[in-house]
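Collaborator request, handled under Task 6.
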Amino acid sequence: MEKFGWVILALFFSSAAAQTGFLNLDCGATQNYTDNETSMNWIIDSNEYITVGEKANVNNSRVYLQSLRYFPKADKSCYSLSVDPETPYLIRLWFHFGNYNGKKNPPSFNVSVETQGMLYRQMETIAVAGTQNWDTEKILTTGSNNRLYICFIRTVDGSDNDPFVSAIQLVKLSSGMYALQGKRLMLNTVSRYDLGGKSLIRYPTDEYDRFWQIDSKGDIYNSSLVVNSSTTAAISSDNSSSNKPPNEVMQTAIVAKANVSQLLLNVTEVKQKTLIALYFGEIEAVNTSRSRIFNVTINGIAIATVNFSMDSYIIEREVSLPSTQAREVIIALSAIKGQGNSSRGPLINALERYSIIDTEPETFADDASALQSMKTEFGISDWISDPCFGIEWDGIKCSKDNSVRILEIDLSGKNLSGSLKYVCSLTRLEILRLQDNSLSGPIPSCLSTFRYLKELNIQNNNFSGEIPKGLLNRNLVFRSSGNPYLVQPKRKNKGVMIGSIIGGILVALLVLISMLACCRRYNGKLDANANSSAKATNPARSRSFSMAELRIATQNFSQAIGQGGFGSVFYGKLPDGNEIAVKVLSATSKQGPGEFKNEVDLLSILNHKNLVRLLGYCDSSKKLMLVYEYMGGRSLTDHLHGPLASQCILDWKARIRVALDAAEGLEYLHWRATPKIIHRDVKSSNILLDVNMRAKVADFGLSKILQDDAISHVTTTVKGTMGYMDPEYYGTSKLTERSDVYSFGVVVLEMICGRKPIENADCEEEINLVNWVMLHAEADQASSRRLTDIIDKRLSLSENEMECFNYVVDLAIQCVDREGSRRPTMSEVVEGLKAAKLYVEPKVNTNAENTMHVLSPEEYSRADYSSSLLHVGR
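Structure tokens returned to the collaborator:
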């Protein structure tokens, strides 16, 4: 607000009018009181509002300016005030330096106003003599949260530059005042004029206690204007304006003198973006033979026509001036002459102007939420307001671009206790130092997927459990000594490895003998023996269908819906209405009775929401058939490269969901099924979608069982699909769970890029999808290649989705590492995808204290599995 002197007459505010919607904080005061001058109640700024700072007393005639609070230690100190979300408020800050504690020079510092979704910072130079008062006033709409922070930020070192504040007033305004309805704006008050007023600047009838200047400032109107004082107060405005000016303001005006048809108001020193409010109310006695009609223009642009057949008007306009234009606004009120038009000159009662303050970027929402949860977990009291705005939180370093991210956390030696369960959202972390505390619990495996993490120091804590392998197999400075309950990842000893190899060879021989026997029976006596070779081990979950039943269900196999390595797939519907997909073994298929029995046996004992359910089988009339639940969304291949690729484009959010669904199905096979199973043919055509685009893993004909938890691999004949096949398995014939991880990584890259794993290309380096992606991932900054060049051109990614894209690419690249031991497990992949999903589908949880936090991957996993997973055989 402009600085000016005034004389306050004795004001007698009614207690109700003065107190409704007011919070008056006397900063540094020691007791509550009522101000005799205004009848307003003032309260002390107790711990409810602020917990830092020192108090001092000064001399001033106004009681609420006789104390202050200053901040000699912290770089940023904030008041935390309770507000109603999305509601307009007036904020008034008072400063009376008063040479407190013998200080001679007034300080200079920043003041910021912060609420979720709205951050403002404005330099306020407190350059007044010790005996003067200084105030600033702002009007804003709060954000989506119920907390408002008013912060004082040190800009210059030294005790002579300690920020301070004398008093804070927070006044709740009515919805829609000052064009704020439906908008989040902050207005800095420049001037508020009672045009034609006499001496008061603060009116008892103003329910918001606004300060109104009288029109003594000569340059606001030209010399042809006079105040028509003889007619003031003849008619009171009905105050129908949403801004509700007090009656005293509407009962005075400036009017054009006789025979002058135009009133000009020259508003100078205008900011580039300004809100102007004009108030019009008739003050002369009503005379039907006379009229007052005039046009209103701002800088030559017609705004409105005012006709005083109505009692009062308010006109609000936002004015944006080009950066090259002089900071001046000319408001012209021009009478409309002629028959039936105005017989009196223009009139205006009041004018307000505000500069519109732009917001500044706030910390990335997931990062801010994670830090708020960590603040509660660790009991850190001096973390307040936005983590990166103005001054970063102690121990925090942030990026400075438009997407403000947390880059470093250094909380070493802070005597903290708690766990790291909230860290998984901080995916841009480069440095995490937590040494010399009392932190406990497991190390979140999501840290091993953080592509930017360079240093992780957790020395001298109480962490427990196994160190995630991914933290040991990358170029990362990792220090973990001094944690007595932390153990290294388990390694197989040589004896176990030799035993595993011998066991694997024996199992492979038994499988080979079994397959030869099956083939002999198939070629010679299929009619007689097929029935016994295909019996399900768990008939309760799959049943034998007759050929007649399937002919009726499929209308004599008339509707083919797919073709795979096993054979053709046909659509059908059972008498009970259930839709089915019938897979018929082709005479030319490389698969046979062995694969048929394998799939029947396996799917009869598996039950998971992300595995295609086997309903039954048929082995009559020399035909082998498998009957599955029908997946109406077709295969992932159809959506990426097939007939649905242009008709039903999977957006990024759907692709992440599909990847997570498939990963959970594979994770179940590897770790939760009994016995454990390696799929061996993970590819996009074996990931099927239902009508809701939820994914399930299919086709278990090539799957292998791990009979003993001690066995780390199976040595077997290499089978699979080129482009998806694990190169380590291809070269050694040793099949492990990490072989499925490799194939799944190829599927994820396929979804990211929209490309097939193997494509015809003129350039050799572009034939293989994995090699092509790695060339872009490993390219240095000087290269023309960029990681964003690999994105499927059909996708249009938002800022959050781009963050998710970078995260998922890094995860997929880890999956397709040529060395199996360096790949994550499927459990770690599931956790990584759940963390990625939080970018595009934030999932919140309410804890016992009713505070909101994003679920960590660990919490998310437990919630999903507790309700959806059936552990067969346990």
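The cover message to the collaborator said: "Confidence is low (pLDDT under 50) at residues 1-18, 216-240, 518-540, 844-874. The chain has five domains: 15-173, 189-357, 365-487, 525-630, 634-841. Please let us know whether this matches your experimental observations."
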